[in-house]
């Protein structure tokens, strides 16, 4: 991480000095009457968004929740590799790595053919395909993830703290107004009195869960089927002779349905999802009065011949979840897309719900608002046109649909496999899990070509950086200080675009000369997107952060020989930034060019979005295409 750019400061580098607004807000109890962005809901979706917006002191963000305080336990716990990559951009992946359980292997169990014998292990596999991400699939309480986000918000310049205990009553949008969204919240006082507080906002985002009031206010339906299946979930401290209690296990039993066992952080806790009763059409799980004893008994039926002796129940719940989604994720109605700009959005469970079997709920919800956050920030800061906001619904709706289809298929396969009459080969269940590992890891997301995603015409120059998919990190050595690191970790959640310049190989002198020529284009010519869109007084990397990878040994290159763009002067003191250039890691099997299929001879340019997705792969000399790509994305100052 970089700090001290604008002068030496002691103390925690993650704690920012308070802005004027931060000082004002920290003593304000009631809701502000007018804000830039109103976020409704402090779940994973709302907090990811608020933490992203917290990076921009010029944006006034307000986040509100009906609960009296932060979530303390329970709910989701699976953190996909892709979410870990996003946490890295927010700066807390290492903390999650330290505290969490790592899902390295998964086992599969099923009922033996001989009656009364109970379950037997049928397979054991890597949970995540080797090399899929530099991060493991981890398990950590959702409430803990919330705390990491709240920490970022609290220490941001605007000192963003949620307003708890306020329930959104309704929300209306008037596009003609400067602050088009009007939201009404109900507050219940200590004496039981009810009061309405009104907030107007330039944009509002409903992250208010499956029964979203924002969605209802906008008249957006949630379509799909209820699975009509009750599930019990419990976080327990137990003693058992089941041998895989510390491995993620999928158990399909002929006698009692399916269990998904997820070992939890800390070494002792385990989460067990148990398939319970089939519900009637339109029946709610609450009507069944299922007790924790029923869930434990059902679990023991599945575990037979093993026994689960529950010593303590940390949390439990019974719920039914269907795979449902909304046809649109913003307030622009179907036929009005060309004429109307969006001002209100829905994200997370508010617009799609999943079964817990595929572990998607929290992960997809966070990725929704990671997609939206930088776009809102760019529009509100006047960097990008408001049309950019249309891409949120388009991109995330397509993705939600793909994931729901996968979730439905996986849930159906597990249920079918638990019934002996279906005679489903356990190898088929295992093969499906392996084949679809990219979905569960969150790395399967691929955005379609659009203003924000270029064509795949030059994909052959970097076969491992698939246009539309996330930028897959790989090891490099930072040139100036010889630090081995992951290249992807330079993409922080700061709203900036990245241009990765992969220099051509061969003759080192010629390669550096080519890099110099490219950098001169980027700094000196009026067509360059860096020059065209530069804001007065801003650092040269404020909009597009250029990083260069050189396919040579770092000891053979003098940092001082780099062009100015790769050694830029920045900040109040015009200090030089030494962290723009990298070399290949000389250790075996760690050459980023080989790992990611970069054309060794010709090199290439890779444009990466602020949310870590590859937007374009271009030839090394593709400066005209680079200019054309950024043209509709940024506004002229
Ligand atoms: P949520 O986390 O639901 O957050 C919505 C927030 O909005 C809440 O804090 C709520 O208080 C607030 N809110 C709602 N209405 C209003 C209003 N009118 N005004 C103000 N605030 C409002 N997923 C799993 O993968 N595994 C699990 O075991 C699991 N268990 C779950 C158990 C329960 C009881 C629930 C509710 C969900 C569970 N989930 C589970 C789902 C997972 O938690 C969600 O997918 C994930 O939290 C979605 O995040 P979100 O931010 O979209 O919404």
CATH class of the domain at 459-630: Alpha Beta
Which percent band covers the strand fraction?
15-25%
The assigned structural class equals alpha+beta
What share of residues is helical?
Answer: 25-40%
How many beta-strand runs? 28
Number of DSSP helical runs: 15
User: What is the typical, i.e. mean, pLDDT?
Assistant: 92
CATH superfamily of the domain at 459-630: Phenol hydroxylase, C-terminal dimerisation domain
CATH topology of the domain at 459-630: Glutaredoxin
Overall description:
The protein has 637 residues and is of the alpha+beta class. Among the domains are: 100-135 and 224-322, D-Amino Acid Oxidase, Chain A, domain 2; 459-630, Phenol hydroxylase, C-terminal dimerisation domain (Glutaredoxin, 3-Layer(aba) Sandwich), CATH 3.40.30. The chain has 15 helices and 28 strands. Strands 6-5-13-14-15-12-16 form a 7-stranded mixed beta sheet, with helices on both faces. Strand 24 (569-570) and strand 25 (575-576) form a beta hairpin. Helix 2 runs parallel beside helix 8 (361-380) and helix 9 packs antiparallel against helix 10 (426-435). The chain is globular and about 75 Å long. The mean pLDDT is 92. Bound molecules: flavin-adenine dinucleotide. Flavin-adenine dinucleotide is lined by residues 40-46, 64-67, 75-76, 78, 142, 167-168, 207-209, 213, 233, 317, 319, 348-350, 356, 359, 361-362, 365.
């Amino acid at each position: 991480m970089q700090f001290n750019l604008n002068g030496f400061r002691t103390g925690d580098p993650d704690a920012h000095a308070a802005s004027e607004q931060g000082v004002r807000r920290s003593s304000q109890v009631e809701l502000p009457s007018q804000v830039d962005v109103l976020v409704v809901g402090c779940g994973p979706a709302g907090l990811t968004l608020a933490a992203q917006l917290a990076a921009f002191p010029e944006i006034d963000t307000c986040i509100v929740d009906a609960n009296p305080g932060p979530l303390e336990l329970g709910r989701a716990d699976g953190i996909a590799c892709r979410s870990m990559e996003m946490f890295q951009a927010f700066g807390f992946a290492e903390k999650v790595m330290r505290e969490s359980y790592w899902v390295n292997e998964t086992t599969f169990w099923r009922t033996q053919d001989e009656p009364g014998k109970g379950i037997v292990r049928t397979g054991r596999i890597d949970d995540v395909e080797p090399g899929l991400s530099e991060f493991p699939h981890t398990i950590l309480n959702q409430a803990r993830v919330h705390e990491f986000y709240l920490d970022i918000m609290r220490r941001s310049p605007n000192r963003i703290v949620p307003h708890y205990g306020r329930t959104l009553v309704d929300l209306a949008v008037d596009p003609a107004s400067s602050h088009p969204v009007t939201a009404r919240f109900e507050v219940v006082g200590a004496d039981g009195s009810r009061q309405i507080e009104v907030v107007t906002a330039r944009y509002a985002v409903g992250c208010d869960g499956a029964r979203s009031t924002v969605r209802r206010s906008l008249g957006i339906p949630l379509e799909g089927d209820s699975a009509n299946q009750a599930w019990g979930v419990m976080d327990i401290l137990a003693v058992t002779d089941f041998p895989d209690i510390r491995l993620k296990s999928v158990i399909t039993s002929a006698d009692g349905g399916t269990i998904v066992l997820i070992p939890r952080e800390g070494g002792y806790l385990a989460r067990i999802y148990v398939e319970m009763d089939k519900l009637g059409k339109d029946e709610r799980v609450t009507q069944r009065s299922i007790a924790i004893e029923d869930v434990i008994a059902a679990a023991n039926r599945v575990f037979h011949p093993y026994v689960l002796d529950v010593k303590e129940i940390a949390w439990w719940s019974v719920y039914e979840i269907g795979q449902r989604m909304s046809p649109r994720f913003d307030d622009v109605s179907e036929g009005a897309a060309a004429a109307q700009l969006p001002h209100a959005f829905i994200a997370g469970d508010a617009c799609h719900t999943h079964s817990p079997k595929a572990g998607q709920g929290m992960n997809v919800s966070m990725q929704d608002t990671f997609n939206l956050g930088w776009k809102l920030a760019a529009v509100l800061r006047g960097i990008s046109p408001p049309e950019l906001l249309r891409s949120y619904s388009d991109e995330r709706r397509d993705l939600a649909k793909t994931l729901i289809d996968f979730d439905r298929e996986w849930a159906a396969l597990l249920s079918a496999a638990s019934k002996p009459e279906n005679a489903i080969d356990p190898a088929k269940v295992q093969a499906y899990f392996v084949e679809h590992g990219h979905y569960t890891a969150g790395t399967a997301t691929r955005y379609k070509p659009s203003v924000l995603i270029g064509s795949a015409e030059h994909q052959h120059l970097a076969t491992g950086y698939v246009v539309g998919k996330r930028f897959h990190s790989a090891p490099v050595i930072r040139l100036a200080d010889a630090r081995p690191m992951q290249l992807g970790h330079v993409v922080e959640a700061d709203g900036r675009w990245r241009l990765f310049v992969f220099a051509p190989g061969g003759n080192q002198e010629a390669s550096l000369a080519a890099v110099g020529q490219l950098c001169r284009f980027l700094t000196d010519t009026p067509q360059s997107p860096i020059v065209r869109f530069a804001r007065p007084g801003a650092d040269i990397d404020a909009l597009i952060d250029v990083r260069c990878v050189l396919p040579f040994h770092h000891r053979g290159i003098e940092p001082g020989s780099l062009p100015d763009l790769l050694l830029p002067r920045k900040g109040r003191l015009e200090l030089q930034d030494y962290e723009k250039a990298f070399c290949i890691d000389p250790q075996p099997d760690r050459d980023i060019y080989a790992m990611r299929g970069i054309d060794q001879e010709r090199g290439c340019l890779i444009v990466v979005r602020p949310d870590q997705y590859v937007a374009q792969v271009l030839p090394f000399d593709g400066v005209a295409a680079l200019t054309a790509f950024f043209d509709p994305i940024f506004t002229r100052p």
